[in-house]
Amino acid sequence: MNQPIIDVIIPAFNEEDSIGKVIRDIPTIVRHVVVANNGSSDSTKKVAEAAGAIVLDEPQKGYGKACLTAMDYLSKVEEQADIVVFLDGDYSDYPEQLLDLIKPIIDQDNDMVIGSRALGKREGGSMTLPQVFGNWLATTLMRWIYKTNYTDLGPFRAIKWDQLKALGMVDENYGWTIEMQIKAAQAGLKTTEIPVDYRKRIGVSKVSGTVKGVFGAGYKILWTIYKYW
């Protein structure tokens, strides 16, 4: 895989203040940046298009639903990607670290790489205590049940496109990231993690920023672990 085709998927809901920064920081090696506009009521779509992204409208709310919509679009392009990278639209990830994220796939033939915030440098206040605890609990349970070595459910991740399609992803909301990691383990994919840095997001988190989001995500993550056991 000397010169892989790389596409990026960004689910976005009301990220007008951050989405342009995210897109502009993505390395030029990327072919398509696909933003799944997940029912935004602000100018997310306009800003993303101005920054050069392909914007798809997905009115049904849900992180996973937005990702599935973007995947459906990429499955129909004439020349298929080799690698797909997921990252958030709130500028908490460092898009320029995409080059580090894809390196284990290109150089060591890994199938999937998780960007671990637990292993990287986190800005103070960038992750709430429920987020830190939830990641620890989820990765610990996966280690016990699925014999994995994950340290994070980080949204910033890269995966071979053909392997991603083969996983048969279905979750439409909070269980998306952990579903991918569990199914990758069950499929025997070669996976690894690399440290990625993390900063305070721009705006209010739709998950950790609300009580409903925290409990909803926690319940869905635990349910997903049980569901595929």
UniProtKB/TrEMBL annotation:
Residues 8-159 form the Glycosyltransferase 2-like domain. GO terms for molecular function: transferase activity. SUPFAM superfamilies: Nucleotide-diphospho-sugar transferases. The keyword Cell membrane does not apply. Keywords: Transferase. InterPro entries: Glyco_trans_2-like, Glycosyltransferase_2, Nucleotide-diphossugar_trans. The keyword Transferase applies. Transmembrane segments: none annotated. Pfam families: Glycos_transf_2 (PF00535). This is Glycosyltransferase involved in cell wall bisynthesis. The lineage of its organism: Bacteria, Pseudomonadati, Bacteroidota, Cytophagia, Cytophagales.
